[in-house]
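Possible regression after last week's pipeline update?

I re-ran a chain I had predicted before the update to compare outputs. Posting the input and the new output here so someone can diff against the archived version. Not blocking, just want to make sure nothing changed silently.
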Amino acid sequence: MKKPDKSSPERELLRSFEAAGLIEYLEYLQSGKRVMMTNFKAGVAKGLGLTLGMSVVLGIIAWVLTLLVDLPVIGEYAGQIEDYMNEFRDSTNYTDEFYEMNELLRSIDENTSGPEAADSPENGTAASEATLGTEGSAQESPMPESPE
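New output (post-update):
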């Protein structure tokens, strides 16, 4: 096979591809794992950047609004926004729900802790054992069937 001349169009085209990084790019595209990993990293970086960036921007906006409360015209609107934000913060206090959930988990833990709890009729495990049976197979349910 005949070698192309040093100034042939094929050599010039190959040099331009190498200079542009096209050969490495084509090798990159042939590896599916490498493409997916690169896109995954880019997606994580974009999501993290968006989250942190919006947090900073919204924090700055809230801080500026608190400074504008004392201005005559803008202060009324900024004060209303600040009141709305404070009201929302106070209304989303989930202390009661967390307390109820903690009590429910504590009662479940008490009902399922140890063999002495399984024999006690006041904790409700006897009804669940009657429903499931001792081997875990489904038996007759104490709940009445709905009329059809």
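Follow-up from reviewer: compared with the archived run. The chain has two domains: 9-93, 96-132. Marking as no regression found.
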